[in-house]
Amino acid sequence: MTTADTPPQSLPEVVQLAMQNRRDIAALIETVNTMAERLTAAHERMVQTLTSLIQEDRGHIAVLTTGLSELPLKIESMATNVESLTGKVGRLTGAQQQTNDRLTEMNGHLTTRSGRVANLSGDRFEKEVTRLATRISRRQLNLADATVTHIGWDFTTIAVSDIADLDGITDSEAEDLNRADLIITGHDDAGHTVHVVAEISGTIESTDITRSDRRAAILQKATGQTVRAVAIGNEAAPEAIALAGSQQVNILTMPTPANDD
Predict the structure, then answer these.
(1) What pTM did the predictor assign?
(2) pLDDT tens-digit readout, 87-115
(3) 27 compared with 207, residue with greater pLDDT
(4) Which of 16-25, 45-54, 85-94 has the lowest mean pLDDT?
């Protein structure tokens, strides 16, 4: 049993009990005050924390708002950059196309010039062969009184119509015959007229053999006389040699004429 549960017996005991109660009340008040102070401090800290968080959130919201407000401008700037880049790519593509066109044009010029050089060399060879035609006919074809009766590249020479009856052949055959590089007319050992249809090329190809054979057949059809098919060059491709053997076309080779330059 505590002192509070025991009825006071005397005045001193009552005084002592009152003082004890006063001390207990003071201690309780101090405890309450301490707890109140702690709660107040905790509340203040919580308020400060919440205030700080709100301020941070406001800062984040402000940054986000600014970013969102600037986003259309950035998108527009990016679109402008893309458009500019597209234009540059287009200009580069156009410049590349112009370069390709120029290269193609230059290549065409080079090809044309190369062709002209080749044609000059080929024409010179044809003229040299034509100059030596009678000698070639006499020595290699055993023709007497050989004369050049047609030169395909020289329109001042005798036309095919002057040595052949074109009524017996078609217009296309006559035109084809007129394209023959060289036609020589002479006589064999028996005195019979013999015509030679010659194709001239630095390097004899299968096409030369085919043309010579075809045009010789046309001339024989038009004249009814003996016609020999000949290909003249300074060399012959193997396939041309094989084709000439099967079509009975004579291949005559001679050196390329020396350059006079």
Answers:
(1) 0.50
(2) 877 787 877 787 666 656 545 544 444 44
(3) 207
(4) 85-94
Token pair recorded at residue 128? 């040299």
Q: Is residue 237 scored above 90 in pLDDT?
A: yes
Residues 150 and 220 in one domain: yes
- CA–CA separation, 174 and 90 (whole Å): 56
Number of structural domains the chain divides into: 2
- 93 lies in the same domain as 158: no
Query: What is the DSSP code (8-state) at residue 179?
Result: T
Q: Confirm whether 121 is domain-assigned.
A: no
CA dist 253 and 235 (Å) reads 6
90 and 149 together in one domain: no
Residue 112 falls inside a structural domain: no
- Please say whether the beta carbons of 219 and 195 come within 8 A: yes
Which two three-digit tokens encode residue 23? 């001390």
Across the chain, which distance is largest between two alpha carbons, in Å?
Answer: 188
Nearest 5°: the CA angle 234, 237, 240 is: 110
Residues 68 and 141 in one domain: no
Neighbour-count burial for 21-37, b at 16+ CB within 10 Å, e otherwise: eeeeeeeeeeeeeeeee
Domain that holds residue 48: 10-100
